[in-house]
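Narrative of activities, Objective 1.

The group set out to show that a structural description can be obtained from nothing but a protein's sequence at a throughput compatible with the screening campaign. Below is one input-output pair from the validation batch, recorded exactly as produced.
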Amino acid sequence: MRTNGSWFCSIALTLGLSAAAVTSAQDQIPVLDQTEKVDFDRTEAWAMQFFGSVAMFTPLCAPVVREPGSVDVAVEVTQVPHLSADQRRVGFDGVKEEDLNRLPVFVRPRVTVGLPHRFAIEVGWVPPIEIDGVQPNIFSLALDRVLYVGQNWSFGARLHGQIGSVEGDLVCSEEDASFAPGTPENSYGCQAPSNDETTLDHVALHLGAGYQVKSARGPTFLFGAGAIHHDLEFQVDAFTYSVHDRTRLLADGTTWALDAGMSIPASDRTQLGIELLWSPLEVVRPPETTPQNDDLFHVKALVRYRVR
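Output recorded for this entry:
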């Protein structure tokens, strides 16, 4: 008869052998680990440009001289445009349709502090709140300078940028992985939801103007233009057909954008703002071999409150 100690030794040995077998099996899974620099007008790069431009840290207000030490807090709500099936066909150079319509809007708190000599600094953060399997985490920073203030018109410049990423099961969605690999619903062989990450860093220079209607609670109209240099990366982390795909795609380039909008004072301390932004983006979608325009057009809204 075996003693209790023998039983414990047998169980421990069995568990140890099982763990070693699993580890050995994992070690034998081929890993596709490559880095590829893609053209800026390739479909994958277009998708990264698109979402990076959506998150652009535009001022959403006219150039205004702020008292040094003044503090404004604001909440921005930005629309993320819905993409068609053709627009979502970005994987493998425009062959694979990706599940990109996950995040209809995102919310970004903002804080602005007045500085001497007509400068102001503004920070914003899209916090890592997961929505439908997608989790953004984007930090934005801007330095504003008012260049001219007249009776109605004002002009200013803004240097802004962002660093951050969006994580989620972008290459292999949870729905894809629920079907058997190789079936029509899972033709790319996803064995589990992926854990991909796209980095949407950029720096931009924005020139803006404002025209204030001189009346009680009169609106201020906003106009602006900017040039944006993108530094983009997409890191795949997916298991497909018993291969661990760790492909990394890199792209960089420059785009430009126009914006227009309006801000309205709701009270002595509160201001409401809305902005329309348009950015022409080029992409080569197979079977085409020349770039076509597939532009970004979206809406942002903001509520701003002057703390002091």
